[in-house]
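PROTEIN DESIGN WORKSHEET
SECTION A - STRUCTURE
LENGTH: 458
C-ALPHA CELLS:
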C-alpha cells in the first residue's frame, strides 16, 4: 500500500539557525531537532510564534546534538503542549540541559536589564522562556546509544551514528515504512584535535545535508594562525577577547591556548573563561572518554591553566582591569551573554583585539564586526569600534565543502531526493553545484515552511 510521507522544513532552511524538521506519516508526527532562530531580527521574531501544527499531537523529538540552534526551542515546545519523549545521546542530554539553563538565564538577565534601563519597546520586556520552563524539558529526555536501532512505532524506527562536531553529536537514520531518511545534523571535521572523524552514511533514499561551509575550504594551519594573531595582539599590550560557543569551541580554544603556552609559542598571558558552562562541558568530556581524544590528565591540566569567571561582579571587575589578558566569553556570535560586557569596555580601545573563531551568522554582531562595522548596537545603545577584529579560520566545528563532499562518498546508490539545509544561500548554492559536479547528484534547497512529499510503501 502506498502512502505519502511529508517533510516540512520549519527551520534551518535558507539560514543556519532554528533547525526543525517535521516528519508526518499516517497521522504520526516526529520532529528532528528543535532549535532557536538566531541572528537577523526577522528570524529571532519567529521564536515568539507558535508552531504551525498541533504540538500536542507530536509523538517524539529526536535530537542530533545539543547546540542552541538545535535544542533551544524545546521549552516552548513543552509550553505548547508536547508531552512525548525527546531522544538523544547521553552527552547531548547533559549538554542540552546546560545550554537550556544558560539560555533561560541570559534571557531573564536581558529582560531585567531592558526593564531597568528602558531600552525595550515592550512594557515590560519578558524572557522568551524562564529557567523553570527550561527545567520542564528535562524529564522528557530519553537516552539513546550509538548505532542501536530504536523502534518508535510500526511506521518509524531510528538510530544515531557518531558525527564529530561536538560531544554527543550524531546524524540520524530514520526508517519510515520502506524509506531510509538521513538527517546529517551538523557534520564535524575529518581531523579534529578533540573529536574522532564522523561516520558516513552508506544508504539514503532521502538525504538532508547541512551546508554551513558549503562554499568554503578551511585553513589547514589554524594553530599557527592563532599563535600569530595572539602574538600580534600581545604586542599592543591590550586585552584579547574571544567570543566562543561554550560547547566544543571553548574546549578547543582552551586546548590550543594551553598547548601554545606550554610550548612557549605565545606569551604567558593570564587566560580566563567567562562561561561557567564552558568549564562544565570539560567535566562532561571527562565523564565520556569514549567520545573524544582528550585524556583525563589533559582535561585536568587545561582546567588548572584557565581561570573561570562565574559571577557578574567578577565579569565587571575583570573588564575594568587594564592588565593584558586573554578572555574567552560566550556567546560565539556575540548575540548575547557576558561577551557584550567586555565589548562595552574594550570595543573602543585600539589596543584591544576581538578574535573570532567560528561561523558568524547573518545579522549577528560577530558578522557585523568582521564586515568592518564602525559601530554596533548593544543593549539599546550604539558603541564605537576601534579594536582590531580578526577571524582565525579553520577552528570551526563544521565540515568544510571538501569534507561535506567526502562525507557522502560511501553511499552505495544515488538518493531519490537530496535537500540542502542549514546554510545561508551562498553556501547552499555552492554545495548544490559541487554535489552535481562530483557525483552527478541533483539536489533541492528548500524554503522555510516548505513541505515535500515522499511516496512510501508499507
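SECTION B - SEQUENCE
RESIDUE ASSIGNMENT:
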Amino acid at each position: 500500500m502506498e502512502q505519502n510521507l511529508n517533510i516540512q522544513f520549519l527551520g534551518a532552511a535558507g539560514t543556519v539557525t532554528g533547525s526543525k524538521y517535521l516528519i508526518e506519516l499516517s497521522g504520526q508526527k516526529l520532529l528532528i531537532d528543535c532549535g532557536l532562530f538566531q541572528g537577523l531580527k526577522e528570524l529571532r521574531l519567529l521564536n515568539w510564534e507558535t508552531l504551525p501544527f498541533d504540538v500536542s499531537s507530536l509523538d517524539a523529538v529526536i535530537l542530533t546534538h545539543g547546540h542552541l540552534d538545535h535544542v533551544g526551542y524545546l521549552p516552548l515546545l513543552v509550553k505548547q503542549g508536547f508531552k512525548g519523549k525527546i531522544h538523544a545521546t547521553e552527552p547531548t542530554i547533559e549538554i542540552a540541559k546546560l545550554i537550556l539553563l544558560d539560555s533561560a538565564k541570559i534571557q531573564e538577565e536581558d529582560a531585567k536589564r531592558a526593564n531597568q534601563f528602558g531600552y525595550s519597546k515592550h512594557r515590560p520586556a519578558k524572557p522568551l522562556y524562564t529557567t523553570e520552563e527550561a527545567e520542564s524539558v528535562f524529564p522528557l529526555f530519553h537516552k539513546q546509544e550509538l548505532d542501536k536501532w530504536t523502534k518508535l512505532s510500526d511506521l518509524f524506527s531510528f538510530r544515531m551514528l557518531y558525527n564529530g562536531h561536538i560531544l554527543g553529536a550524531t546524524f540520524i537514520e530514520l526508517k519510515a515504512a520502506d524509506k531510509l531518511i538521513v538527517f546529517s545534523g551538523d557534520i564535524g571535521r575529518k581531523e579534529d584535535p578533540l573529536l574522532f572523524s564522523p561516520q558516513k552514511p552508506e544508504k539514503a533514499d532521502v538525504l538532508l545535508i547541512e551546508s554551513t561551509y558549503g562554499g568554503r575550504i578551511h585553513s589547514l594551519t589554524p594553530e599557527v594562525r592563532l599563535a600569530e594573531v595572539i602574538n600580534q595582539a600581545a604586542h599592543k599590550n591590550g586585552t584579547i577577547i574571544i567570543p566562543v560557543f561554550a560547547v566544543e569551541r571553548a574546549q578547543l580554544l582552551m586546548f590550543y591556548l594551553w598547548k601554545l603556552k606550554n610550548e612557549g609559542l605565545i606569551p604567558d598571558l593570564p587566560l580566563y573563561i567567562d562561561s561557567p558552562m564552558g568549564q562544565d562541558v570539560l567535566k562532561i568530556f571527562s565523564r565520556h572518554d569514549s567520545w573524544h581524544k582528550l585524556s583525563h590528565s589533559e582535561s585536568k591540566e587545561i582546567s588548572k591553566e584557565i581561570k573561570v569567571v562565574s559571577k557578574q561582579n567578577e565579569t565587571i571587575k575583570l573588564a575594568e582591569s587594564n592588565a593584558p589578558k586573554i578572555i574567552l566569553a560566550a556567546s560565539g556570535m556575540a548575540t548575547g551573554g557576558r561577551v557584550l560586557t567586555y565589548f562595552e569596555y574594550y570595543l573602543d580601545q585600539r589596543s584591544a583585539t576581538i578574535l573570532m573563531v567560528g561561523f558568524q551568522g547573518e545579522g549577528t554582531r560577530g558578522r557585523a564586526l568582521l564586515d568592518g562595522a564602525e559601530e554596533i548596537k548593544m543593549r539599546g545603545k550604539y558603541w564605537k569600534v576601534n579594536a582590531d577584529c580578526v577571524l582565525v579560520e579553520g577552528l570551526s566545528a563544521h565540515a568544510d565543502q571538501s569534507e561535506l563532499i567526502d562525507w557522502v562518498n560511501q553511499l552505495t546508490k544515488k538518493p531519490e531526493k537530496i535537500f540542502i539545509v542549514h546554510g545561508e544561500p551562498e553556501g547552499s548554492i555552492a554545495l548544490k553545484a559541487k554535489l552535481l559536479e562530483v557525483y552527478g547528484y541533483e539536489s533541492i534547497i528548500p524554503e522555510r515552511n516548505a513541505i515535500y512529499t515522499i511516496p512510501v510503501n508499507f
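SECTION C - NOTES
The chain has 14 helices and 21 strands.
The CA atoms of residues 164 and 188 lie 4 Å apart.
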